[in-house]
């Protein structure tokens, strides 16, 4: 044990040294920009507006220059999404400053600014595709791994808005917004087919097709099917029985997804369907280890009809109606052959209306209202043979919100963003969420921002009403959790094609919802926990050169404090990332990412820090051969783990070692 602790300490010190070296590199970035122009990496002749004047949608729900946003926004464009070989949304998000992911071989969980609580199914982050909300109505979860309803191949631009955003989005927008701008038919103008094969006997086929039609219409369709046998996984905690700690042939995964949209004039119809099943090798929730029969199914769908128009006054209006559904089904096998089934069914529908435009020369207003009716929030748990019911509950709810936002440029160099939202949940008192952001732009190369934000999240039906008879009991008396946040940020342009930024933030979370063990009965239940304080600093920089050389990196430091003086679990002090892309010749390109983090507190120990390098070799279209890419993930075959939740006997879950994926894509 002492030897393991010493090795972990040495590993953590090594990671800290690498991250400090990254910080030094980011700090010295500005001083090296001007010198680069004399060598072979001559700066590209970019417009002064190419970087900070990029337009984004996620921060305010309408297009605005990146330099005018009231929150810190990271943008990942189509080129990076393709060149880096990201296999799912979570892998792309993990390269964002201050963001990290963890996994338990069932789902992928998103951590933001040091916060990634066990048992939190990404309910504190809002996922949006082309303006449509994608969190389900029962767990409020934003699915980001292979379980996500969205494929990387369908995304044109990823925007991550850091910090609370309930002032314009309502609940769930506690720590950030994942806004996905999806491909249109005009971005494809034809059909592309991709075929993947990789480690774990994985295989995938994907099709994207689309066209801009005569008369201004547009259609897009994306389809993907995936299957993998996975790998045999070893768990030390079970190395005392007939399995020798090995779960063999119990890691399979399959999914099918389809996404489409049709635009005719001012009308747009959007539809999405996905289904994914996954075996559970780690024996969660006390299931029998090493035997088949424990697996999960996630199925989601969404249909939205929207109308966009410009009024005679010049103001723009948006109206949409939507309907969504989600099914979770878990089969759990226990000792003695007991087969238990867990089911969650959600159906919801709603509408929203927004109106935005200018009033005078200095004000841009947005007014809006949203309503959602969660008509079915059903949870069941029962033993199958003989049938024994543990849980059968349906707890419908509804939400209604109105909001207003004013972007006031009261001076050529000063911009004030004021946002206010009133939300009413059917089970709780109304709540007000404000946001105030003051932006100063003394010149075209520097932007300074100060922001004060409130957000909230009502507890979901799973947290309030779920009972399994094994580990968890209900707590219908949960109250909403709230956050107050202050952030100071600066963004500076470096030369013609570089930029750097820094953010300093402080978050205070009240009535935080988290798992708590009841010592009287040994059961877990969700409870409102004492106040949590989190503060941190994030630094990032990016640069591009002529010929296709691209480099970006970030370093994030954070510190959390609980009321008892402790710190949050699964919360690294330091995160560092480097993302690069470079041409090897006129046909081939090398891209990759290095991501590192320091140690994290688990249930009973500390999980060591780690650094992982992924590289992708990709080709331009080759005459008659299509496009090829080879990705090697965890190139150096690092052994590392993520903290496990209370659902597992294990204190931590080992993550994948080296993996390979080969992709072929052809345009038809």
UniProtKB/TrEMBL annotation:
Keywords, sorted A to Z: Cell outer membrane, Membrane, Receptor, Signal, TonB box, Transmembrane, Transmembrane beta strand, Transport
PROSITE patterns: TONB_DEPENDENT_REC_3 (PS52016)
GO molecular function, one term: siderophore uptake transmembrane transporter activity
GO CC terms of this entry: cell outer membrane
Domain TonB-dependent receptor-like beta-barrel span(s) in chain numbering: 293-635
Keyword Methyltransferase: no
Pfam families per record: Plug, TonB_dep_Rec_b-barrel
SUPFAM superfamilies referenced in this protein's UniProt entry, alphabetically: Porins
Domain TonB-dependent receptor plug: 66-177
Gene3D superfamilies (alphabetical): TonB-dependent receptor, beta-barrel domain (2.40.170.20), TonB-dependent receptor, plug domain (2.170.130.10)
GO annotation, biological process: siderophore transmembrane transport
Membrane topology term: Multi-pass membrane protein
Signal sequence extent: 1-35
Subcellular location: Cell outer membrane
Main location: membrane
Classification via InterPro entries: Beta-barrel_TonB, Beta-barrel_TonB_sf, Plug_dom, Plug_dom_sf, TonB-dep_rcpt-like
Stated family: Belongs to the TonB-dependent receptor family.
Protein name: TonB-dependent receptor
């Amino acid at each position: 044990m002492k030897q393991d602790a010493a090795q972990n300490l040495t590993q953590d010190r090594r990671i800290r040294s690498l991250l400090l070296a990254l910080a030094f590199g980011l700090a010295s970035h500005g001083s090296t920009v001007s010198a680069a122009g004399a060598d072979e990496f001559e700066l590209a002749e970019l417009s002064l507006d190419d970087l900070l004047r990029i337009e984004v949608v996620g921060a305010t729900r309408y297009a605005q220059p990146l330099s005018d946003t009231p929150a810190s926004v990271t943008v990942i464009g189509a080129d990076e999404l393709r060149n880096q070989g990201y296999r799912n949304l979570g892998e792309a998000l993990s390269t964002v400053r201050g963001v990290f992911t963890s996994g338990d071989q069932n789902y992928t969980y998103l951590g933001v600014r040091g916060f990634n609580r066990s048992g939190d199914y990404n309910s504190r982050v809002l996922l949006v595709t082309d303006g449509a909300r994608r969190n389900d109505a029962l767990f409020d979860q934003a699915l980001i791994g292979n379980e996500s309803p969205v494929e990387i191949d369908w995304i044109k631009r990823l925007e991550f808005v850091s910090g609370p955003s309930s002032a314009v989005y309502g609940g769930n927008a506690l720590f950030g917004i994942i806004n996905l701008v999806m491909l249109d038919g005009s971005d494809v103008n034809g059909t592309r087919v991709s075929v993947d094969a990789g480690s774990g006997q994985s295989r995938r086929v994907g099709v994207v097709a689309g066209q801009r039609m005569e008369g201004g219409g547009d259609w897009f369709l994306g389809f993907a099917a995936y299957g993998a046998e996975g790998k045999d996984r070893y768990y030390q905690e079970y190395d005392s029985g007939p399995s020798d700690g090995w779960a063999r042939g119990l890691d399979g995964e399959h999914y099918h997804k389809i996404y489409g949209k049709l635009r005719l004039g001012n009308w747009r119809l959007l539809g999405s369907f996905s289904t994914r099943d996954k075996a559970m090798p780690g024996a969660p929730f006390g299931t029998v280890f090493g035997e088949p029969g424990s697996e999960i199914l996630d199925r989601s769908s969404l249909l939205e009809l929207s109308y966009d128009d410009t009024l005679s006054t010049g103001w723009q209006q948006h109206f949409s109606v939507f309907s969504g559904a989600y099914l979770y089904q878990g089969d759990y096998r226990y000792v003695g052959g007991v087969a238990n089934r867990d089911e969650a069914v959600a159906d919801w529908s709603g509408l929203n209306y927004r109106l935005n435009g200018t009033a005078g020369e200095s004000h841009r207003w947005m007014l809006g209202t949203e309503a959602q009716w969660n008509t079915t929030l059903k949870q069941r748990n029962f033993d199958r043979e003989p049938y024994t019911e543990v849980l059968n509950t349906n707890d419908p709810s509804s939400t209604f919100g109105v909001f207003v936002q004013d972007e006031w440029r009261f001076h050529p160099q000063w911009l004030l963003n004021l946002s206010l939202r009133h939300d009413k949940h059917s089970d709780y008192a109304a709540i007000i969420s404000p946001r105030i952001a003051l932006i100063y732009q003394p010149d075209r190369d520097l932007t300074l921002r100060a922001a004060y934000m409130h957000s909230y999240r009502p507890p979901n039906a799973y947290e309030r009403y779920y009972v399994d008879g094994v580990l968890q009991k209900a707590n219908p008396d949960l109250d909403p959790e709230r956050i107050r946040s202050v952030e100071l940020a600066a963004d500076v342009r470096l030369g013609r094609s570089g930029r750097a930024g820094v953010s300093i933030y402080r978050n205070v979370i009240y009535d935080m919802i988290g798992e708590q063990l009841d010592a009287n009965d040994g059961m877990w239940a969700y409870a409102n926990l004492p106040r949590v304080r989190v503060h941190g600093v994030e630094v990032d920089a990016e640069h591009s050169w002529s010929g296709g050389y691209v480099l970006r990196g970030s370093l994030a430091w954070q510190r959390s404090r609980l009321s008892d003086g402790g710190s949050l679990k699964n919360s690294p002090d330091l995160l560092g990332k480097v993302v690069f892309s470079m041409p090897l010749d006129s046909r081939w390109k090398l891209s990759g990412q290095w991501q590192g983090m320091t140690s994290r507190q688990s249930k009973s120990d500390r999980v060591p820090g780690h650094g992982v390098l992924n590289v992708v070799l990709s080709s331009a279209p080759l005459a008659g051969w299509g496009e090829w890419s080879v990705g090697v993930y965890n190139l150096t075959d690092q052994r590392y783990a993520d903290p496990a939740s209370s659902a597992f006997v294990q204190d931590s879950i080992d993550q994948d070692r080296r993996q390979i994926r080969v992709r072929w894509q052809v345009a038809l």
